[in-house]
Each structure stands twice: as structure tokens, then as C-alpha cells.
Amino acid sequence: MTRVKTKICGLNDAAAVQAAATNGADYIGFVFFPPSPRAVTPEQAAQLARDVPDSVTIVGLFVDPDDDLIRAVLDGVPLGLIQLHGKETPERVQAIRERFGIPVMKALRVADPSDIEAARLYEPVADMLLFDAKPPATLENALPGGNGLVFDWRMLKGANFPVPWMLAGGLDKNNVTQAVTISGALIVDTSSGVEVEPGVKDLAAIAAFLETVQGLEQ
Ligand SMILES: O=C(O)c1ccccc1N[C@@H]1O[C@H](COP(=O)(O)O)[C@@H](O)[C@H]1O
């Protein structure tokens, strides 16, 4: 049996970083996408990263970034993983991975089984995959991710990928056990599900989410 791992994403203040780290998060994420209510600058992230223990992997979340932005972040933040949450092609994922020498996780937005199949294109070039909900076209002001939306986890059941993958999209302490059981996920990621409002993390909710997942094995 393997312990299910966790990522808490969209951290933008020291108290939330502390809550995630001390309560056992395996990954924490900083969002470098200015339209997001959770966005941080490279300078803010560098400051926040000082309090992160080495045991926690720092993830930089980007949406169709240019090289200059990634470089600016890496100048001050010891990223252990680059999360690409835009429309990056497999070629672009490969280029980023080779240029920066850091593991890359490609996020795929899922509405139907063909979106899961599309992940196959990234298997040769990504170190990890992440599955998030695709927002419906009717959702106004939707972000590329971080919308607090779930998708049908049954689509992932029995899926076999040659690289590790994370389950994301609307996870919180109340649904994460079912999400893990149905999807078979070994790593879960949340952002909106541990917030009091978009961009404002709830410290008690971070602790509760992590405590819930700590009891899960697959
Ligand atoms: O969190 C954001 O603001 C964000 C912006 C742009 C792309 C992705 C973003 N968040 C990621 O989306 C998934 C699902 O988040 P949620 O739990 O549904 O809020 C997760 O990987 C976030 O890191």
C-alpha cells in the first residue's frame, strides 16, 4: 500500500505556507499567472520559499509561460517541479524541460474520455501529468484552472500511465476520499477547496484536508 501524497496550490502568504508545510504537504504550489487571484510575483515567491523545508517540493504553476518568466522565477525560487497549466504543446513541454533541467508536469483539462487519451501525447515529454476539470464554455471569467470544479473521476479508474499523475479539480476534505477511491489517484492537489474566498487560504481547511488524506492509502 502506498500513502496518498498531497499538493496544496495557490499559496500566497507565509501563514498558509506554514500551515501546508507543518501539516505534511508533499508539494506546495505558487501561481505565476497574473490574472489569478492567487498569483504571486517571483519576488514574493522567493520570500515565501525561504520558509519551506527541503522535504516539501516547491511547484511553480505557469500558463503558457515564456522563457523569461520561468527564468525570473528560478533566479529566486528553488522549484522542484514546473506545472504547465495552459495550452502548451508536447514540443513546448519538452523544450522547457530541456532548457531548465527541472521536472515538468503537464496539466490536462478533462471533460470527457478523449481528454484523458490526449495525455498520451505528453507521456514521452512530461515527468508527471495532472488532471483538472475543464470549465464549461458557459462559465464566465473561468481561469485555465483553479475554478473549484470537479469532473467525473470514473474516467481515470484503471488508467495506466508511465509517469506519476495528480488528481485536481474541486477537491476538498469532504470529497477527497471518494475522489481517491474512484480515480485511483496516488497524489491529490487542491487550491479552491482550502480557501475562504478565491485567493485567501483557510488555514484550518488546509490542515483538515491534509489530515484527511494522511489516512488514505492505495
Ligand atoms: O489556482 C489558480 O488560480 C490557477 C490558475 C491557472 C491555472 C491553474 C490554476 N490552479 C490549479 O488548478 C487546479 C485545480 O484547482 P482547484 O482545486 O479546483 O481550485 C490545481 O492544480 C490548481 O493548482
Largest sheet: 8 strands, parallel
Form type = globular
Number of helix segments? 7
CATH superfamily: Aldolase class I
Look at the helices and sheets and give the structural class.
Answer: alpha/beta
Round the mean pLDDT to the nearest integer and report it. Answer: 96
Strand content: 15-25%
- Which strand order spans the largest sheet, edge to edge or round the barrel? 7-6-5-4-3-2-1-8
Radius of gyration, CA atoms, in whole angstroms: 16 Å
Report the span from N to C terminus.
5 Å
* H-E order: EHEHEHEHEHEEHEEEH
The name of the CATH architecture is Alpha-Beta Barrel
Indicate how many domains the architecture comprises. 1
Helix content: 25-40%
pLDDT < 50 runs, ≥5 residues: none
Bound molecules: ligand LGQLAAA5
Number of strands: 10
CATH class: Alpha Beta
In short:
Residues 7-211 form the N-(5'phosphoribosyl) anthranilate isomerase (PRAI) domain. The chain is an alpha/beta fold. Helix content is 29%, strand content 20%.
Structural summary, described in words:
- The protein has helices at residues 14-22, 42-49, 67-76, 90-100, 113-117, 176-183, 203-214, and strands at residues 5-8, 27-31, 57-62, 81-84, 104-110, 128-133, 165-167, 187-190, 195-197, 200-201.
- The chain is an alpha/beta fold and 218 residues long.
- The chain has a single domain (5-214), classed as Aldolase class I (TIM Barrel), CATH 3.20.20.70.
- It has an eight-stranded parallel sheet with strand order 7-6-5-4-3-2-1-8. A two-stranded antiparallel sheet has the order 9-10.
- Helix 3 links the parallel strand 3 (57-62) and strand 4 (81-84).
- The longest helix is centred in the C-terminal third of the chain and has 12 residues, at 203-214.
- The structure holds ligand LGQLAAA5.
- Belongs to the TrpF family.
- Its EC number is 5.3.1.24.
